[in-house]
Amino acid sequence: MAATDKTPILKVEGLQTSFFTHDGEVKAVDGVDFEVGANETLGIVGESGSGKSITSLSIMQLVESPGKIKGGSINLTGEDLLKKSKSQFAKYRGNRVSMIFQEPMTSLNPVFTVGHQVSEALRIHKKLGKKDARQEAIRMLKLVGIPAPEDRAKRYPHELSGGMRQRVMIAIALSCDPELLIADEPTTALDVTIQAQILELIKNLQESSGMAVLIITHDLGVIAETADKVAVMYAGEVVEQADVKTLFKRPLHPYTKGLMNAIPRHDVDMDELEVIKGTVPSSAEMPSGCRFMKRCPYASEICETHPSLATPTHNYGVEDDSGAVRCWIYTEEWDTATKKQEVQ
Amino acid sequence: MYIFIIRRFLQLIPVIIGVTLVAFLIIQLIPGDAAQVMAGEAASEEQLEQMRENLGLNEPLYVQYGTFLADLVRLDLGQSVRTDQPVMELVAPRFWITLELAFWGLVVAVVVGLLGGILAATKQNSYRDLGTMMFAVIGLSMPNFWLGLMLMYLFSIELGWLPTSGWGDWQQIFLPAITMGTAGAAIIARMTRSAMLEVLGEDYVRTARAKGVKERLVIYKHALRNALIPVVTVIGLQFGYFLSGAVLTESVFSINGLGRLVVDAISQRDFPVVQGTVIVLALTFVLTNFIVDILYRVLNKRIEIN
Ligand SMILES: Nc1ncnc2c1ncn2[C@@H]1O[C@H](COP(=O)(O)OP(=O)(O)OP(=O)(O)O)[C@@H](O)[C@H]1O
Ligand code: SF4
Ligand SMILES: [Mg+2]
Where exactly are the transmembrane stretches of this chain (chain B) (predicted)? Predict the structure, then answer.
């Protein structure tokens, strides 16, 4: 599952998505960059409210008003999706780009059978007739490990368990053989054992289809199990990016280090553990410098200036050049600035 | 499900008994001598006695009620004291007309109400939404008869497009149907709007969009099917109210429906006819509610178990 060096399947650059509320603009996603290649899994991790879901909904162009994609580009195998018209992009949605959601219990329509809901995308995108679509839907249900798929196809969502429903969601998402699958907390609502099964399923399906996967979670345990690369998000920005091994070996950003402390108990929500004191600042009190400043144990004067996401050049110990971090500590300036402070 | 229907049906029995009791008491509660009131001041003693005999007023109350019920079961509603015609024969054709009127009123209410509600909900807080809801408020607060008169004035008298009164031709349907349907349309529009707004925020609507379902189908298939569940109840209830609320519309447009029949019967103090009409209307009301209840349950079953 190594990254290919061809054009990435998905390349997001400078993505900005804001909500224009009565109290002003809320910058939910503020200049996010990342890319995912074929057969590769990128994990996006971060606390609640860091902008993970809005990032993924932006890619699907499903951000609801008053939210709006303000800037940046989203490239799918080289085509800028944001330049497409609504109807052009509708042809991609559920076809070349698919998404599964956190809540399997409410993500299926209660008044239609499971079979109907799986065949719908096939009928839209693959233009299959009713019978063929149904046949294909049953095949998909079987593929995602649903026992007795012919029978289940006739059932309504409420007759299925949460884990089964998430499998149905996966069947829907993969029915048209997408190049990119976005999974926004696909297992958060499920039991631990079911969680592992679902993650395993996604992995296996990826291996056979070669699709790119974007997995969103606030659970570093899920990242460790599934991802090849990680982007850590904080307050609408990517604060650290690295391949998964590197990140776990040597987390750089103080925020990432804070998240790591939660790993020994990854069965418990990070949010509940509160390893990092404080919460994500609201848009009104967002610091103009480093957004993590108020919670950072290393914060220094230089942090009043907004750091950029860059390859670390200082103070990072292990010698390698993968990854990027948005923190002054790993820059030359840090040494000069802190030395100056010591002198004073 | 069957158990539910049976239980619901058993619950109807006391209601039906209540209805018959009230209808029965209409004659009993007439102050003074019922026969005198019906027959009028000029009636002779023999005529009065004859009437008491016909109506069984000389029997003890419980016997009267028993006879009344027994007749009712045989669909015998007694005779008019004016024309001696069986009440059933008077009521049946009129009931049919009222049913037709209520049906067309309901069509107006449902079509306009659903469309208005959907239009408003799919563009929440827009001028379209505001405009639709303003119409709904106006529609609700306008008295029925006044709306009827205004429509008649505009379309029949000023423009001459539609007949002012009567029933039977298709042109005669429009004005009464709009008159009857407006308030219902307003209620249904509001209900549809709020149900749609709720449903449009559901995860499965987002799933439908994520699948690439066209926005039109997202609204009319995925969302509306779910939003309809509470709306159906309102629609059913409307039908019941329509039947009983037809009186005013019928008199504005001179339609010979049940409403007219009961008004005429009251003014002629023809109480058996009043009684019969009340029973028919009340039972229809009770039955529609029963059907709506079951329908709601059928539509809702999948969600309820959830
Ligand atoms: N409808 C909205 N109106 C205003 N602001 C919103 C809205 N939806 C999201 N936001 C803002 O976007 C930010 C990011 O939200 P997002 O759902 O992407 O967080 P997340 O990282 O997915 O968190 P979680 O782990 O809770 O799912 C929120 O903190 C919030 O301020
Ligand atoms: S830039 Fe400064 S405040 Fe921000 S994380 Fe680094 S050390 Fe902490
Ligand atoms: Mg989220």
Answer: 12-30, 101-121, 133-155, 170-189, 227-253, 273-296
Could you tell me if A201 and A176 are in contact, meaning their C-beta atoms sit under 8 angstroms apart? no
Tell me which residues have their CB closer than 6 angstroms to ligand 1: A 19, 21, 26, 28, 46, 48-54, 67, 218
In this structure, is residue A327 part of a structural domain? no
Domain with A136, as residue range(s), is: 107-175
Check if the beta carbon of residue B80 is closer than 8 Å to that of residue B90. yes
pLDDT of res. B25: 85
Task: Tell me, letter by letter, the H, E, C secondary structure of B169-216.
Answer: CHHHCHHHHHHHHHHHHHHHHHHHHHHHHHHHCCHHHHHHHHHCCCHH
Q: ipTM more than 0.95?
A: no
Band (A320; pLDDT cuts 50, 70, 90): low
Domain of B276?
91-299
Are the C-beta atoms of residues A45 and A218 closer than 8 Å to each other? yes
Domain match, A58 and A144 both: no
Residues A167 and A181 in one domain: no
C-alpha distances out from residue A97 to A56, A69, A184, A214, B16, Å: 11, 18, 13, 11, 59
Q: What is the pLDDT of residues B131-151, one digit of tens each?
A: 999 999 998 888 888 888 888
Using a CB-CB cut-off of 8 Å, the residues of chain B touching A116 are none
Tell the residue number behind the tokens 């058996």, with chain if given: B272
CATH number of residue B159's parent domain: 1.10.3720.10
Q: Which ligand approaches the C-alpha of residue A46 most closely? A: 1
Q: Which residues contact B170 (CB under 8 A, 6 or more apart)?
A: none
